[in-house]
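Good morning C.,

I know you're traveling, so I'll keep this short. The sequence:
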Amino acid sequence: MTAEAIAAVVVALQFTAFGWRISREIAVGDEGRRTWLPMTDYLNILAMFGTVGWCWLCHCFPASSVMTPRRCSQLLLLSWVSTL
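The tokens, ready to paste straight into the viewer:
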């Protein structure tokens, strides 16, 4: 499995988790109760952007010593853990 495929799965999981949360908040708002987003939802959004950005950098600069496959894998793992 390539890094691009893993990134696609991780971003899809993050997007799904955030979508469930937004759906719940819409239902709560329709009931007239106060809606809010906890800090973990903001972390999820940042992790989505971070995953896409980091994979984009890994793709654009494959020979760079900063963008190693190991660091790309570490970021993908961190992003996946943030969705839990």
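Safe travels,
E.
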